[in-house]
Each structure stands twice: as structure tokens, then as C-alpha cells.
Amino acid sequence: AAMTTACEKWLQIEPQYEITDEDLFKNTAGYYKSVNGLYYQMSDFALYGKELSWGMTDVWARCYAVDPASDFKGYPQMYNLEYDAKEAAALASSAWNAAYKIIAQANDLIAHIEKTDDDFFTLGKTDRNTILGEAYAIRAMMHFDLMRLFGTSMEVDPEGRYIAYVDTYPSTVNPPISNREFMGKVIADLKQAHELLKTYDVEINPTQTTSTAYRFFATNTPSQGKFYGNRGTRLNYYAVTVLLARACLWAQETDDALAYAREIIDLVAAKKLEFTQSTSIKTAPKILDEVLFGFYNEKLVETYEPYTNTTASRRLVIDDHTFFFNPSNDRRQDIIDANTDVMGKYVVNVSEQKDMVIPNIRISEAYYIAAECLYKTDMKTAAANMMTVRRARGYTSPSLSAATTEEAFLAALIYEYRKEFIGEGQLLFFFKRTNRPITFSEGNFNHAGKLTLPVPDSESAIPNN
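The structure corresponding to this sequence follows.
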């Protein structure tokens, strides 16, 4: 079933989350509904349904040539780092509020499930471990992206105290903790999730997640029930593996980041995960076969459409489409409409459920992370990892090799991030994590470490519901 069906109109259940607890957690179906509700809210336009994918974060990274006269003022303000301007501040506040609300609800779910035995659940340990694992992963992911938005990078200020890590429900005292300690908590939660999610995704039914035919909206229903279908729309074991690599890289724990990235690369080598040449990008620009996790939003296409209208001031046209067309055999050029300069990931085949998915975690990211972890000590292997992705995208020249300089490697990595993750919100965090200037059509924009949103004044107390 689609996420919207699984959620059963979650937001209409009750206006206040707490008063549903007694009924919500009285059976396994209630736990299913609870975790589905978290994904439903994460897919909201304030978060991954728009602003943390193709909206605010990609504007911020200068992926688009934003019209300063746009009738949506928040985007020109974000583009120019005008965080205190009214509309930009509203974008930040909405993301902050929505994220901490989800964290509070994840904490409530975790508290309930941790005091519930396996035999309460229909499928026993399988249900308990899967639901708890996904709840831990959601809590960690929301905190991590709050840090990436509202905290500084480890490169700039590892001991800075910007935001709180809230892991109890209800919670009333939430002092900010250092970035280093904060990331330790993110990684600890993800490791918990990683171990718990093995039960179903690795030991019981790996095909449901590893198979590209089953990961997104397959017609089959696994024997464990509908809750265990469409694992690509849930934080499954393999998605959490890449998320761990992403978080460890941010935390500058490169040995661990490399180990998690290699886990995915080894699965590809063993042909347990598919990562091959993408020949149909023009008709399937999301390259969904290689997406391990994405968000589902049934209003995605109609929400994106106004930003593709080249006669409207709020249009989001690609900053420099020639970037995507060089070299000419890079198939990712088909993501961009050369006539309108519009990014096409969210405008095709709108009748299919798959076209309502917003990619968030890709197999290719594992190769990029492994390469970045190695380029200073083993350029040959780093280059080979990058070339694996290039070959999958249809080109091998210019080639990277053991002779590639560190600066040339980083330039190539930025090139890859810009193409691979367009419309997915990841490029901005590369520039922030590495503290490198934003590269765009006009050259290099030196953000001077200022890619940090101020904590909303009215929201400095963490919401608990």
C-alpha cells in the first residue's frame, strides 16, 4: 500500500498526539500506525517533501538561478544568506518545529516499545525490532539534519553548542550540547537501528529491500504483511548503513564512515544490490533503482509544478545547464530540460506512485563517501570508487587515477555531488561539512562558514508534541 494508505490519514486521528497513546499502543496495528505517521510527517513540505530536498537547501547551495524578484521571497533571502529576513526565518522556524515534533513522537514510540515484550506483537521479535529500529533511525536522522541546518560543521567549531539532543519523552530541560557529543548520540542511535533492522532486512526477507523490483511499490505483498512492503519508503537496514556513513563522515570519523560505505560497495560487488549503467534517465530521471530510501508525498508533482513555469518569477531554473551537458555522454544531462533549464525529477509519469517519491539515500553516495575517506592516503582506490559511479552514468573521461591531485579530486567530487543529488538537498551539506566555497556558474562563493541557520527565537524551547 502507498504511504498515505498505510498512514490512514495520520494527522486526522487526533489534534493532540498524547491523548491517542492509550488507544494507539494497544495492539501491533497501533504501533504500525505510529511509525507510519512519523514518515508521513517527515514528508511534509516543511521538511523532505520540499524544503530539505528540492526547495530551500538546493536554493541555498545555489543549484538554481533564483530570480531576486521572486514572489516567494524566502528563496532569494536564503540564496543571499539573509537568515533574519521574515520569509527565510519562517522557513527555518517551520523546519525546526516540524523536526522536533517528530522527534518527540519518536521518543514516545521508543518509550512504549522498549517496555513492551516481543510476545505482545503479532510477529514477535520481527515486529518489535523493525519498529524500534526505524524509530531510532528516524530520531537520529531528524537530529542529524537539525544539526546540519542549525549547527556548525565539525570543521568550523566541533565543540560549539547549538542545539539539544532530545531522547526522552516528555522532556522539559533540553540544554544544547557540543557538536562532538551531539554527533556521538546521532551515531549511537543509528548503530542501534542498524542492529535491530538486521532481523527483517538481512535475516528474514532481504529480497524485499535489496531487490529493485520490490523496494518501491511492488505489486507483491510480503508474507509478513503490508507493513513490510515498499521498504524503500522506510529507513531500512541498507539505507541506515549509508546514513551511518554520512553521519560518521560529518563527525570526521572517517574510518567508521569508510567501513559503512564499504559494506554497501561489497554488497554491490556480490551482486546483492544493483548498481549498473543507468540507460533510461530521460524517462526515469530519479534513477530509482539505485535509491535505497526516499520519501513519499502524493502532492509532490502539483507542488513542484509552479516552480517549473518559466514565465513565473518563482521558477527554479538550473544555475548552469551546460554543467550537466559536459561531458556529453554523461546520462545525467537527461535530468535537465535543455529548453527550459528545469530539473525533471518531479515532472514525469505523474500517474505512477513511484513518481511521488523524493530520493534521499542512494547507493552512489557510498562510493563518494568511500572515495572521500581515502583520497589523502590512497588516491588510486579513491579514484576507482569515483570512476565506478562515472561508468554507471555513461562516461569515463576525464579519468581519475592514482595521479589525480587532491584539489582535482575535490573538484571532481563537487562535480559529482552537484549532478547526482540535484533536487535532493545534499549538495549544500557537502559545502558546509568541508567548509569549501560554494561552486556555481559565477565562480566560487565564499560563505565564510556562515551556512548555519539561527535557532528560531520563538522556538528555543524544544516542543514536546
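The longest helix spans residues 86-114.
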